[in-house]
Amino acid sequence: MGKKAAAVTVCVVVAAAAAAGASVVARRQMKKSAKWSRAMGIVREFQDKCDSPIGKLRNLADAMTVEMHAGLASEGGSKLKMIISYVDNLPTGEEEGCFYALDLGGTNFRVLRVHLGGKDKDIIPTEFVEVPIPPCLMTRSSHELFDFIAEELAKFVATEDEKSHPFPGRQRELGFTFSFPVRQTSISSGTLIKWTKGFSIEDAVGEDVVGELNKAMERVGLDMRVAALVNDTIGTLAGGRYYNPNVVAAIILGTGTNAAYVERANAIPKWQGPLPRSGDMVINMEWGNFRSSHLPLTEYDDDLDVASLNPGEQIFEKMISGMYLGEILRRVMLKMAEEAEFFGDTVPEKLKNPFILRTPHMSTMHHDTSSDLKDVASKLRDILEINNTTLRMRKVIVELCDTIATRGARLSAAGIYGILKKLGREITREGEDQKSVIALDGGLFEHYKKFKQCMESTLKELIGEEASDTIDIIHSNDGSGIGAALLAASHSQYL
Fold first, then answer.
1. Is 436 designated active site?
2. CB of 121 within 8 A of CB of 110?
3. What are 18-56's pLDDT values in tens digits?
4. 179 is catalytic
5. What is the CATH number of the domain that holds 99?
6. For residues 217 and 224, is the Cβ–Cβ distance under 8 A?
């Protein structure tokens, strides 16, 4: 073969190799593009299912109102329990004196001392102590648990100064926040239905928890009575009402969610007792259990529910509360990893762990304003061990955070609107200038700013511009503590 022919052959081979290389690159690009398209398809389908246009939210609010009526009519008449709280007097701001609160809701309990100054109520000075419960007392006997609590309560009371007990001869009074399922029978009594959160004390089930605490306080020589047995939502309502007489409802948006509101006693068909002098009764809705065909449920919500400890229950809570938002995000990301190789050829192992991605992590990523979304990158790296994400990928994660938070916030607003409709306060009536105020508490509301802002703007959208000035949302902090003490004051035996 001559030199010229050899050169031509070399050129042909080089050209073929280059063409083959280009073909490989092109195939890789096509494969990469196809994966991205599949991932974006998963995202768009999820966004479509989460969509909550204003018409759907109005239907949802109407469904909430219908369920409220049904729950007030009879026990078991609705998914909403609409529990009669026996709280018929809310704080007026005139309360004076020193009152105590006991907040028992987990492996620790808090004891608070709250000083109320009547009309001079700008500040409520409080003192408190937090006490861990020895694990062995969580499974032994009712007698041992309540004796331990009473002893710690007595130690705290012993730190009183002269100003802390300004009415000689009066018995001290306590608001008791007991965050376990209870069948309430009066303002200061309720039988334990079951334990949760790691407690398992069989001899306490079916017993009056207030009676057990009262007997324990007697055994340690503590002159104190439980004036009010409450939950944190009702405490939040009390705290809001203390400062603002126009508070009509309270919402908890935290790890879990619930709502309570002030109902007219004569509008509660299942109420059997005499009508209270105030004419009002606070209703604990237990709205986390709300369910409706108008809820924008997705496959991820269904799967989360099936895998939960209480399948078929607390559907509303599983869509809007802090316990679950991060988990919904993880489930969407996992599908993208499994079906579209969004994070590479292998599915990140950490991404398979339920609840590893918490709502505070999601909030941090959602609020990332840096040009390269460095907070998103660090959360993916530190929590899920996902490295080398591109800016385009990180933008998709932020988009998912926004979709999940927006849906939760808009559903929360629809629930509040449903309560306002039940009370007939969703519109402005001629000659009426009284505001309707909603007290809110919980870490989700307090710390997830985009969630809070979206919820508030959606509520205004539902109410309409002309009536939006008549609805206010305020932050009522520590309903499980200060709110319980306030309810002890408003139900004092010395009123």
1. no
2. no
3. 555 556 666 767 777 889 999 999 999 999 999 999 999
4. yes
5. 3.30.420.40
6. yes
